[in-house]
Amino acid sequence: MSSQVIFKHKWLPVALITPQLIITVVFFIWPAGQAVFQSSQLEDAFGMSREFVGLENFIKLFSDSYYLGSLLTTLQFSISVAVLALVAALILSAVAEQIVRGAMLYRTFLIWPYAVAPVVAGSLWLFLFDPTIGIITAMLETIGIDWNPTLNGTHAMWMVIITATWKQVSYNFLFFLAALQSVPKSLLEAAAIDGSGPLKRFWTISFPLISPTSFFLLVVNFVYAFFDTFPIIHGMTQGGPGNSTSTLVYKVYNDGFIGLDLGSSAAQSVILMALVGVLTVFQFKYVEKKVAY
After folding, report:
1. b/e burial code for range 62-99 (CB count within 10 A of at least 16 → b)
2. How far apart are CA 7 and CA 117, in angstroms?
3. Which of 93, 98, 142, 158 is the most exposed place for a label (fewest CB within 10 A)?
């Protein structure tokens, strides 16, 4: 017989969820509502006066070549970071699952980067990629690559992609490793007896069984690439050179806090919020169909 919890007082459930509801309203719903309202306003730089302009801020954005360029940059950056971080973490977790001697030390080293602050991670990799004294720059010069992310936009983009990927791999590694450890060993042993090699066992047994974890990490990694990479970009390139690494979230900051164009900045944040929402719905509607729970 399973015991069932019964709330005798009808207000007790409400009281239990009230703190979470307050936090959601104060820190999520209210700021989002303020952004939607402010996106329809034309404000002076000091917020002393405002004028209702409707959709004018949105119309100006979609006729702005710099904004459309930032949109394309964001898509390229987000897809690259999400794919590279997921693939690298999946490979590392598969290797870590096979290691017997020194496994704990190996896993600890792979988890450490997640504890590094984004700004610190950006500073570390900026030093490694420095065009004059960087170790990686010197290695690239030996194979004939003239590396200079301060002048070359493509180099700068790859630099922030590598940094953002390195920062996220540890998070993905934790979930992939836990998922692989939950795969029944009896299935893998049966496949090994039938003659399947390690790679075939991974793709035909392990990978399909961890598809729920893979889908979860896919959504999380896209959200991470859209929002949480701001400190890395700000600490490494400030969106340069020539706006080549200016993503949507960085342009929101640059136009709102530096340029003091509050209405345009709010409109950009609304579009970014809608874009992430549409992307998440698309993933749940189409990608989740490939997931086997």
Report:
1. eeeeebeebbebbbebbebbbebbbebbbebbbebbee
2. 43
3. 142
Per DSSP, the three-state class of 163 is helix
Answer yes or no: are the C-beta atoms of 172 and 86 closer than 8 Å: yes
The DSSP symbol for 55 reads: T
Which residues 6+ apart lie within 8 Å of 84 measured at CB? Answer: 161, 165
Q: What are 103-114's pLDDT values in tens digits?
A: 777 777 888 888
Which DSSP state fits 238?
T
Query: What's the rounded Cα separation, in Å, for the pair 164 and 140?
Result: 20
8 burial via Cβ count (<10 Å: 0-12, 13-18, 19+): exposed
pLDDT tens, residue by residue, 115-141: 889 999 999 999 999 998 899 999 999
Using the Cα atoms of residue 199, residue 204, residue 209 and residue 213 in order, give the sign of their dihedral.
positive
Within 1-117, strands assigned E span 41-43, 50-52
